[in-house]
Amino acid sequence: MRVAVAGAMGRMGTVACEALRSANEYCCGLARAADPDREIVASLEEVLARKPDVLLDLTTQPASYEISLEAVSRGLCTVVGSSGWSAEQRAALAETAERRGVGALLVPNFSVGAMLMMRFAEAAARFFPDAEIVEMHDAKKKDKPSGTARETASRIEALTGRTTAVHSVRLPGLVAHQEIVFGGFGELLTIRHDSLTRESFVPGMLAAVHAVVSRRGLSIGLDSILQSAP
Question: Residues 209-225: pLDDT tens digits?
Answer without folding.
Answer: 999 999 999 999 898 88
